[in-house]
Design goal:
The chain is 66% helix and 0% strand. It is mainly alpha-helical and 395 residues long.
């Protein structure tokens, strides 16, 4: 089937040259070849997962920089943050904390994403929508379809990345999960099922414009590259350049939304702060001075093991899972909101424009390499599936 389509493309190109229609060959038609949906979904899923796994450690650095509540901040420059986490916590529990939910969310989410992206793009183009508009809108639609699976895994991933290793003596995040399953169980038991969708709106506000911009940039850059090369095969260097530049530009432009998403998903609810302080004060009053330090309930020092007990808060929609966050110094103002616009205003008022772009360096590099890897693998796997088809049904 793919051979027939490619022969048809070559026939149309030859006819255009013979019929003196230079406009038809000046810009190759990006919509002439449409892979089967199964091929597109598998190629996108594998490519997206490879990109995410390759850059997971840098994503951890970005999360630490954005969610670091300490004063002064523990993590500053990208290189220093990477080295500090590696030296203190290692690779598996430090830089690659939260990799299990990241893998599940990445593969499942990108499979859904590419299937919906291809369908919506073709539907709009076939119904007369201009290609740039179709690419942009299809990114929105595809990310919206993948979000019910992606957001819960993002909550788990972000918390485990911010926490680092279990019983972490180097960084106090307010969490102390033993692993992915324990994190899922703890969140469900203590905070309710709804907490797995904490920051849902913020995630959509980040990912919808990111995907729309990424694929709008990518499709247009691919068209320009094909027109410049005069061929559908633009070569590996241009494949990498178009994918990496599209992802990098989209990542930098949407960094403020990423900061808001991270802060909402990792921040402690003020009601739980009050409950934690009251419970800690009562516990301190009922114990002997020799067994309990008198300032643990009232000071803003970092939490001790005696301060990590959590109240039963099943069913409440809050931002984090641990009361211990209330007892450490805060280097950034509490957002106390699920509203994206309100959160942006709070961050700007208290931290300025720099607050919107915390972690922009790691995010820019991460999205560039991740996007380049994903899209290059996507194109490479589509060519491989053409030669070794696993789906013989025409779309």
């Amino acid at each position: 089937m793919s051979d027939m389509r490619r022969e048809a493309e070559e026939f149309r190109a030859d006819s255009a040259q013979a019929g003196a229609a230079p406009q038809a060959v000046a810009e190759p038609d990006a919509e002439a070849y449409r892979p089967p949906y199964l091929h597109a979904m598998l190629a996108g899923g594998i490519g997206g997962t490879m990109g995410d796994m390759l850059m997971h450690s840098l994503d951890t650095v970005k999360t630490r920089q954005q969610g670091d509540p300490h004063l002064p901040p523990k993590y500053t420059s990208m290189g220093n943050s990477y080295y500090t986490i590696l030296r203190q916590e290692g690779v598996r529990r430090g830089l690659y904390g939260g990799v299990a939910p990241a893998f599940l969310g990445s593969f499942g989410g990108t499979v859904i994403f590419f299937g919906c992206y291809e369908w919506s793009k073709r539907f709009m183009v076939d119904n007369g929508v201009a290609s740039p508009v179709a690419y942009f809108a299809s990114g929105f639609v595809a990310d919206l379809a993948a979000s019910p699976l992606y957001v819960p895994t993002e909550v788990l991933k972000t918390r485990l990345q911010l926490q680092g290793r279990h019983n972490n003596p180097y960084f106090f995040s307010g969490y102390n999960y033993r692993g992915t399953f324990h994190a899922l169980k703890t969140i469900y038991q203590q905070e309710g099922f709804r907490e797995l969708f904490s920051g849902y709106k913020a995630t959509l506000f980040r990912d919808l414009p990111f995907s729309a911009l990424q694929f709008a940039f990518y499709e247009q850059e691919q068209k320009l590259a094909k027109s410049w090369m005069g061929s559908k095969d633009i070569g590996l260097p241009l494949e990498i350049l178009t994918g990496a530049s599209a992802g990098g530009m989209a990542g930098v432009l949407t960094c403020p939304m990423d900061v808001v998403k991270t802060r909402i998903q990792t921040e402690l609810d003020p009601e739980i702060i009050a409950q934690a302080r009251g419970k800690a004060a009562a516990a301190a009053a009922g114990k002997a001075v020799s067994q309990q330090h008198p300032t643990t309930a009232t000071s803003s020092s970092r939490p001790t093991k005696s301060s990590v007990k959590q109240p039963n808060i099943r069913g409440q929609s809050i931002s984090t899972s641990g009361a211990s966050t209330a007892l450490k110094q805060h280097g950034q103002v509490s957002l106390d909101t699920e509203s994206v616009m309100k959160a942006l205003k709070i961050i700007y008022r208290t931290e300025g424009v720099a607050g919107w772009f915390r972690g922009v360096g790691p995010r820019g590099v991460w999205t560039s390499v991740q996007s380049g890897t994903m899209l290059v693998m996507y194109q490479t796997l589509l060519k491989w599936f053409d030669e070794n088809p696993i789906s013989s049904l025409d779309d």
